[in-house]
Amino acid sequence: MPRTLFRSALVVALLIPVVHAATPVETQKARHEHYEKLGKAFKAVRDQTSTDSPDFAVLLQSAEAVNEASINQQQWFPKGTGPEAGKTRALPEIWTKPADFEAAQKMFSDRAPKLLAAAKAKDVDAAKAAFKDLGGACKNCHDAFRAPEH
Amino acid sequence: MTDVDSPPPSSGGAARIRVWDLPTRITHWLVVLLVAISWWTAEADRLEWHRWSGYTLLGLVLFRIYWGLVGSSTARFAGFVRGPRAITSYLKGGWTVAAGHNPLGALSVVALLVLLVAQISLGLFAVDIDGIESGPLSLYVSFEVGRVAGHWHCELFNVLLGFIALHIIAVAWYVFFRKQNLVGAMVHGERAYSPPLPAPVQPASLLRLVIGIVVAVAITWAVTRAFKF
Q1: Mean per-residue pLDDT for A130-150?
Q2: Cβ–Cβ below 8 Å for B228 and A52
Q3: A124, B34, B82, B195: which could join B86 in a potential S-S bond, CB 3.0 to 4.6 Å?
């Protein structure tokens, strides 16, 4: 009997690495890193649009990163990665009001291409306006679905 | 600002002496107002207003430092910042009365000014967690450094609040236990003294005032533009 138990345990242990998907905590951590990268990209956009002689290569690279994130973020909130899984500012409303959350995410992915277009066109004023618009989309979602910092 | 009260001749009674000039008083109360506005706009997430409030504070603090160097007699650091010996002597009651800050109150002025300078400087470089809101000089630092500045901008405010509380408690103590109306003095500029009467404030010239305002506004403007012209 103990032998059988030991064998089953061994089989399970060996299988774990094969079927291993990200744990909720790992997903939270990855999500945090994604948003940190997004924050860096936003800062770069802000830096480049607040000067009269922007570095368009940096602006374009950052606008691309923002645009990618706006599409990918729709995969960043699988069920079970809310506060019940570990320390996160993601509010339970993300999963209890999925339609509202999707709409908030869509606002971001609708507006991000405008920044990308402005960066491609090297149009600083349009990039500035698109950045401001994007800031509104961030705030819109954060106000409803992210817990305050303290 | 030339309405200097002369002590009543040989009356031996109390007299009202002008202690603070108008620029010092206006600066003081505007700083109070702007610190409150900065606090509220930060709490309410009105970062656009918060930046403008911070810029105004920067200008006020720059002017106050300038006024502490070349302004009216009681506003000058050289006139009121004293060493530990003077502070001990004041605490023992051996202080010759002079108009303006006492040696202990001087510490409060210096502490609050240093904290304000630190708080405003951190805010200039601060970046919020989303990289969306930031101080005007944050383009000279990385996201990480900007976040650290933002973090300390947030933490240091609590220290500033603590020192403001201490300042208010100290002033209240003078008002209630020593019957010295320091608040009124900072409003209308005069304080009642009993003999021996101290010398009243020596005002600075209008030209110096204008230069100070122009310099403070110019530096503040340059900072808001991140020194890019």
Answers
A1: 90
A2: yes
A3: B82
